[in-house]
Amino acid sequence: MRRRTILTLIGLTILNLSLAQTQTLTVYSGRGQSLVEPLVKQFERETGIRVQVRYGTDAQILAALQEEGGRSPADVFWGNTSGALGRAAGLGLLRPLGDSLLKTPQAFAPASRSWVPVTLRLRVLAYNPQKFKPEELPPSILDLPRFAREKGLGGRVGWTPTYSSFQDMVAGMIALHGEAKTRAWLEEMKALAPKAYASNPAMLDAIRAGEVDLGSTNHYYVVRFRRAGYQLGMHHFQDGDVGNLALVTGAGILKTSKNLGNATRFLTYLLSPKAQQYFVGNVGEYPLVKGVVTDPNLLPLEEALAKSPRLDFEKLPLEQALRLLRELGIL
Amino acid sequence: MTLRLPHLPGLLPFLVPALLTGGGVALPLLYLLLRALEAQPGALQEILLRPKNLVLLGNTLTLLLGVLLLTTLLALPLAFLTTRTDLKGKRFLATLLTLPLAIPGYVGAYVLLAATGPGGFLPLPRLEGYWGALLVLSFITYPYLFLSLRAAFLGLDPSLEEAARTLGLSPFRAFLKATFPQLLPALLSGYLVVGLHALGDFGTVSLLRYETFSYAIYLQYSAAFDRVYAAWLALFLLLLTGGLLLLEGFLLRRLFLARTGKGAGRRARAVRLGALAPWAYLLALLPVLLALLLPLYALVHLASRFPRENLQGLSEAFFHSALAAAPTALLAVGMALPIAYLAVRHPSPASRVLERLAYLGYAVPPLAFALAWVFFSLKSLPFLYGSLPLLVLVLSFHFLAESLGPIRGALHQVPRRLEEAARTLGETPTGAFFRVTFPLLWRGAAAGGALAFIGAVKELPITLLLAPMGYSTLATRVFGYTQEAMFAEAAPFALLIVLLSAAFVGVLLWSERRF
Q1: ipTM, interface predicted TM-score of the complex
Q2: What is the pTM of this model?
């Protein structure tokens, strides 16, 4: 009996020591497991820090963080959208970051200073290259309904009203052009009897299959379709047009984190050239630091940064956009 | 025997777990109320008076009615053909016809989208919106009704129908007047599960773009990060489900009063199909083809493009799924037994409320169910948070409703005189239950466990939020890949979900054999 007690004690001590020695980090990720897990593993190998990740959608993660409150075990929130990160900042869930982190990316550091941008995606117009020549496509997404009417594309335009990036774009339109103009644009689009898709790949597949001819989407979906060998056109509107809206992914450290050192290391790692190269090569996203080799499907970084209008991405009027979409019966 | 005070001490072993379970299921309802009450008065008015609510209500109801009708058209003749006729190979057919249970709804919807329309491998127009949702939901949920009706046909006393025939009724009218009323309880309990699925499903309706309440709830969480409006929509949905539950309970109660006791169970003579047999096979082939072979073909086709180096993740996810689902099945049965026992043996308003509550928990949108448990477990059981036992507990609370049906059905068939005899011989209610009743209903319990297992393997939001950190299951891997539209990578995981669940479909049919 006594021997067993001693053995148990020894066992517990060893367990304790090993726990103290392996450093751990808890990440809540709205980014997909299939895309970012290899990068997390690489971070573990290089630093010896054990990373535990809870994967979900931004919304699930944000809801869970709110329900967890002050007892959250999470150290880092790695988000897919600046909207969710801005929401987390607005709710006071994130801790302000230092200059060394915030100054690393080339652009898009948020006013709240509580999360750091990691990669960039752009809204683009995907189209069937057999139907249109690149030069005839409209210079602004605001002209898209007129263009479609002139080309007789009724019922042949795709869109994804339930997708968060589309909603961000509508919010961006409200911020840049006001609600009245946005409402008019949505009504004109509706008059074209657009086909609504639940996901971007479904819409791109429909463009490929000839079910619709064009649709606004995120650039990396087109890149992935092209890498898989499918012919799809990708059109950037003129510089500063809301149809090119930048969609920024990023990460922040939670106020509840008791693991500040490792959390900061993780964020720094995400902005290292190695990790940024991973995002270009494996995910098809734009890097936000210099010195990364880009892909022939992507624009040079300087050009890409000039495409998007400059907005306060944390404070896009998303609520207003959703209300408008609901009011018009689109959502 | 109703639930009167003198019985209480003897019934405590049933009452305590039943009440605990009821509490566990009711917690998420409380949570939804808490969140809903956070609404600002102005915003609340906008929420409640939105015209869209009526559209959602209309859509939800039309889908519900359509699914109930179509599943009846499939399940009723098929259950009859595979139990009461001389159809060759009917056991094998019954297995095939039950297997679609193993296909997750989101897989069915994806296959429909991939197979039809321009570019699809079937020369059919793409079915989306109402008709697509109706088709997919009906073909993946009809097995619940099919199993329930089969059990009823197998337990049917043929003497009633024979009496009706001797009184001069045609075979069809005799079926309608004598047999059909006896099938109603099975029909209703099947409808309940099918209806709860149709009301609560969001995977299928979101893929096929048909806006129901659960789709709107999902959108509120995912697009607007709006917990408050989502809570209100969930409460609307629960109101609707509550109505369905009350209706079923009401119809069932009236029916039990009208039902005559069974004679000695004699097996019914098999109906000769003769020249009709080919048509019967044709009818059975339809769901097998559409709900089983087509999804399997699509999955295998996709999986053949799977990169080989990920095979290790496959076995880990398989093991994790089984490790969460197996104890869930056991616990769900353990929770369902006392509730079913009290409802069947000691019917009273209180025991009925408890039983209906278990179903209502099943109708709470899973994401809200998971968030409620994140909230409450960190407040009261922080040491359990992020552990496998908590995941199993919450999954059991959610899926216990699926176990309830078969257990309730089996309990109805155990003659209560046997239990009473045991009581007169000096057994306590608990002793009588375990020594006499349980050995007779354990096949029903196995069927209930199998249903909970299949449900838990497919489940997603609860697993994502409550599983231990880094615990990937088959369903979370499917989600992780489809989130990024990597369907080929997702396919082997989806295929394993089907395989793992299919093993338990066997249990369901085996449990039909009588003691």
Answers
A1: 0.81
A2: 0.84
